């Protein structure tokens, strides 16, 4: 969150055009971080793609309820994972119009 908010050592960090967020993180979980992103006016317009090993309905529903832009179940196979990342990249940077 310090990086996204450009605070402390990250004051000069560029703001991302897209956030890939895992739900299973050390400390705080991805749902909590998503909630913080959506509550921050400076960050709320950045698309957030949940990329998680969880395919549980409750996790998917909660992510969308908190404002996720999309939800992708993370493939465990390296080739499938690479293909998923390319699909995300193609859609968000090739098809979708991102906020300025």
From TrEMBL:
The modification 4-aspartylphosphate is found at residue 22. CDD domains: REC_Rcp-like. It comes from the Bacteria. GO terms for biological process: phosphorelay signal transduction system. The keyword NAD does not apply. Keywords: Phosphoprotein. InterPro entries: CheY-like_superfamily (IPR011006), Sig_transdc_resp-reg_receiver (IPR001789), TCS_response_regulator (IPR052893). The keyword Phosphoprotein applies. This is CheY-like receiver. It comes from Paramagnetospirillum magneticum (strain ATCC 700264 / AMB-1). The lineage of its organism: Bacteria, Pseudomonadati, Pseudomonadota, Alphaproteobacteria, Rhodospirillales.
């Amino acid at each position: 969150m310090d990086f996204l908010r450009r605070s402390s050592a990250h004051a000069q960090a560029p703001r991302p055009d897209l956030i890939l967020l895992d739900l299973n993180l050390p400390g705080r979980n991805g749902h909590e971080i998503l909630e913080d992103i959506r509550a921050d006016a400076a960050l709320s317009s950045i698309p957030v793609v949940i990329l998680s090993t969880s395919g549980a309905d409750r996790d998917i529903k909660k992510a969308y309820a908190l404002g996720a832009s999309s939800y992708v179940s993370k493939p465990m196979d390296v080739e499938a994972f690479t293909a998923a990342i390319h699909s995300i990249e193609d859609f968000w940077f090739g098809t979708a119009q991102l906020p300025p």
